[in-house]
């Protein structure tokens, strides 16, 4: 039994048909040949783009010369109402300044400081989990949001404001695709951007709530009564080059992307990991057996003992990378594999296709957490595994996610058994992240304890 994968589109389709498929789901809008191609070129009346799967080209774009391949401004078209001018969408000097302020909050020592909050969120996720036929994406989303609010603002998801942000964000996620057509059809600068009413309303509500949290925290910092969490750390970290702090408005932008990146992506990976374990009782048993190490309590040292859970979570990130495609823009003329890449052309790096590339991975569509200990797995982990991007723009929260994911997975599997339901196979779709079309439904039963 192989993990589900979207059906690829026919090799040749009309441009109109492509746009319809793309609007529905960017993964099923792609042809099957991308799973074996080193590069593919797409030409339309409106744009020209190149998808690169060659690890050498991916490294060139993301690691070696990232300044020559900035993040495309078009990628922000659909996300601007929520993210404003956050680190996710900026480039150049502004992006560098934002990372200088943000990165210290996610250093190793600070991650250890957040562990008790992660643990508390995991305990609450176990307490909330129901038995029977359960939609685990919703449960994973709630758990991931709880982690974010506890580590960022020292409040649980049960807090009124945190709960409302979560609810509003769910509305936004359902109304806004990861990439809208504006990302591929360039519009004149003078033309107003049109967003769906639900998208605008949800973004406005989320940003209003985050503004309240941010201003309250700034007041607490001035009064000397702020908790020592991620929000306080970021708000009190000056740019080492200019000495400037984030303004309140800038902090709202950053909190919005922290919630998007830290909640939405973690929830996606965790829910797919639970499904993969439900498909593979043998691996689920190994995760459950290993999770006895959690009996020692909330000590960060336990993370070194959750190796199976870590490898399962990595395999979920490989098969279902939360962000399936990354769009860059050629800043100068290039030549890729003998093809001319003009200035302004889009260069697409696709973790979805790279992670399943038939010429790179052994058993690319199979679920095999043991692969990470093989020579092929180690090589691909270095050259063809980029769930958090790579190079200068690697996600600052990558280490955070690799703490959170295996921990929550271990805590849930230690307490419950997850089984697939006949006739309820999830269909992956990419909108804000890779989620299931109608959710991930599993049968959940509490494990008997000795």
Task: Explain what this protein looks like in three dimensions.
- The chain is built from 15 helices and 11 strands.
- It has helices at residues 15-24, 55-64, 80-83, 92-102, 108-128, 136-153, 160-175, 197-223, 230-235, 248-279, 281-290, 307-319, 351-354, 375-383, 398-415, and strands at 39-43, 48-52, 132-135, 326-329, 334-336, 339-341, 346-349, 416-420, 428-430, 434-436, 441-446.
- The strands form 4 sheets. Strands 1-2-7-4 form a 4-stranded mixed β-sheet. A 3-stranded antiparallel β-sheet has the order 3-11-8.
- Strand 5 (334-336) and strand 6 form a beta hairpin.
- Residues 187-194 have low confidence and may be disordered.
Offer a quick outline of the entry.
By secondary structure, the chain is an alpha+beta fold. It has helices spanning 15-24, 55-64, 80-83, 92-102, 108-128, 136-153, 160-175, 197-223, 230-235, 248-279, 281-290, 307-319, 351-354, 375-383, 398-415, and strands at residues 39-43, 48-52, 132-135, 326-329, 334-336, 339-341, 346-349, 416-420, 428-430, 434-436, 441-446.
